[in-house]
Amino acid sequence: MTTTTNILAVLPPEGRERLMELAREVSFPAGTRIFEEGRKADRFWIIRTGSVTLDLHVPGRRAAGVEILGPGDLLGWSWLFPPYTWHLGAEAQSPVRALEFDATVVRALIEADPVFGRAISRRIAEIVAHRLQGARTRLLDLYGPQGSGPLR
Q1: Can you give the pTM of this predicted structure?
Q2: pLDDT value, residue 2
Q3: Least packed by Cβ within 10 Å: which of 7, 17, 55, 89?
Q4: Of the candidates 32, 37, 75, 81, which has an alpha carbon nearest to the alpha carbon of residue 55?
Q5: Please, what's the largest Cα pairwise distance for the chain?
Q6: Cα angle at 110 between 109 and 111, to 5 degrees?
Q7: Cis before residue 83, ω within 30 degrees of 0?
Q8: Quick one: angle between helices 103-112 and 13-21, nearest 10?
Q9: CB under 8 Å, gap of 24 or more: what pairs does 105-111 form?
Q10: How far apart are alpha carbons 133 and 113 in whole angstroms?
């Protein structure tokens, strides 16, 4: 499931500039596990090139892919909500270039600037709702009696 979950587009210009000042360019080769479900969420990324599969651990089975992210998409939202542990896993499907952000620094910026904080928190809440619905649909497709459609 591909969707645009671009966080930069909803930020006020000064908030976007402040966030971009914190960005660090990183890359991940295809097949790299970027993060694992249940581990510490201390950073997040905005994908510039490539694609990343989000997956969900299914006991006794291989992880179920629930969404594919691409350029402009936010990778990681668990860093915003205590206890700051990943709710999904992520793997680079192709070589990925991304902007990486330190979660502690961004959370401090959110606390210090209510307008920025409200904009980023609202957008991330929308992304979380979208991804949870996508995970539900994908799991029904994989394990439900009739399925509900392909991974998009």
Answers
A1: 0.83
A2: 36
A3: 17
A4: 37
A5: 49
A6: 90
A7: yes
A8: 150
A9: 105/22, 106/19, 106/22, 106/44, 106/79, 107/79, 107/80, 109/18, 109/19, 109/22, 110/80
A10: 30
